[in-house]
Amino acid sequence: MLRWLAGRGAAPRKISRELAHITPEAWLTVLSGLPFLAGLTPSESEALRQRAAWLLASKNFSGAQGLALTDNIMLSIAVQAALPILKLDPALYEGWIEIIVYPGGFLTPHIETDESGVVHEYMAEASGEAWEGGPVILSWADAGPGRQQHANVVIHEFAHKLDQYGGDIDGMPSLEAHAQLRPHQWGTVLEQSFDAFSKALTAVEDSIPQDVDPESASAAAWFDTLPLDPYAASNEAEFFAVSSEAFFVNPGPLAKGLPDWYTLLAQYYRQDPLRRLA
């Protein structure tokens, strides 16, 4: 049963120990806190448990700012991270070893150049980051069960890892194991979908009355008409990551608003959450 895991980041004996630690009680506790997993078949649930065990055995979990990592925290993160590779090769998560978990949001340095060419350096709060060749960093306040039902920071950051494994961080993961998918096809659908979403976002922004602050909660009614969070329009890499989290946790609006892109993601991940969650 564990032959497919051998040599992929952890010794089979270590993986077997992690599997043994995932008791039925612990497994059900974690699944109950992640409603988007409700439609998994028994065989899919077992495959997800094996991949979660592989992650626990292969990655070093570290708590930051005094966060005491419990078995439940690590298992919950591992399960969410394992969902995108449920039917993919776990080797796609190789090349790095650490997952750092903060109790809440954390500050990260940013550098931006404005239209005048002036460089601005500042610190901004983040709920997750995926460093190229380095760790995945997460906020447990945003990654834990019962948090945002239509977003998922763990899936978002691990989608970035899939993107990074494919080479350039450009919204195109490795397609080597997908004979039916071609880079040109992916690039075309990605570009068309990204442009369509960007135009839809601009239309929504233009429709917000002048007396409504677009940065306030009052503007949510307008932005909620979009199939994705506005952050997806940042660039193609963020479009892929935001789309991936929506694909798994809130697939309906994505499938309706960007059907060709949803179909392409379903072919890549070899899953159909829309049918599963129905």
Automatic annotation (TrEMBL):
Query: What InterPro entries does the database record attribute to this sequence?
Result: MetalloPept_cat_dom_sf, MtfA_fam, MtfA_N
Q: Which residues form a coiled coil?
A: none
Q: Which GO terms describe its molecular function?
A: aminopeptidase activity; metallopeptidase activity
A GO CC annotation given for this chain:
cytosol
Task: From the Swiss-Prot or TrEMBL record, give the protein name.
Answer: Zinc-dependent peptidase
Organism of this sequence: Pollutimonas harenae
